[in-house]
Amino acid sequence: MNVGPAGENTFEWFRRKGKWVVIAILSPEIILYTAGKQWFSASRLCKKLNNAAPKQQAELPRNPTNLLSGSKTSAKAVRGRDVVYSKTPLQQPREAKYSLLYGFFVTMGGFIVDVSHLYNTLSRLTISTKGMAFLAKHGHFVNIPEDAIRDKSKADTLAKALVCIQVSWMLVQTIARKVVGYPITLLEVHTLVHVACALAVCGFWFQKPLDIRDPAWVNASEFEDILALM
Prior knowledge:
Blueprint: H1 10-26, H2 28-59, H3 64-68, E1 77-78, E2 81-84, E3 86-87, H4 100-107, E4 111-114, E5 124-126, H5 129-137, E6 141-142, H6 146-152, H7 157-179, H8 186-204, E7 216-218, H9 224-227
Helix pairs in contact: 1-2, 2-4, 2-5, 2-8, 7-8
């Protein structure tokens, strides 16, 4: 469902996935609740970021030299990983709004920072939705191209749409049998409950990336003081 912890091997990844498969079979409403909660969290984050960007831009000085001097970080790598830059609203074109795809990427733990120089027991820290909103409140916006997020995902829109159509077939077939007067077994009714939950989950998670195992490292050099408070 989300980005796994640091150092997770293949066996641990399959065990974590298998746990959620068992939960989905035995209690699909738990998966539905989790999907709805993540959708609400991602939507609320995108709304906060899109509202905070114009406010932060309006509070910045009008001198372009002061705005840009020393704010752009040079390209580098953290432990061999690509770095995502933190930019102010002025440097980020506001035509590109923060979408639900971005919100889901944050919700599932897609952004991490190197905190080995701040803590003795931690080497990396995941930026949560509250942490991202806190950074935006102080004028720092972590930007990443949506194509980069889609490239990390293991399923595209077509694959998700095909899954929804395949799951819907059971619902259409059962309704057709009821219309013509054929009996419906208790097992089919139970299956319809799973189908309804699966369709709702697909709706909530349609924009969510799938099976991302490698998060994006964020260059936190511009907000290390704020990072210590998170």
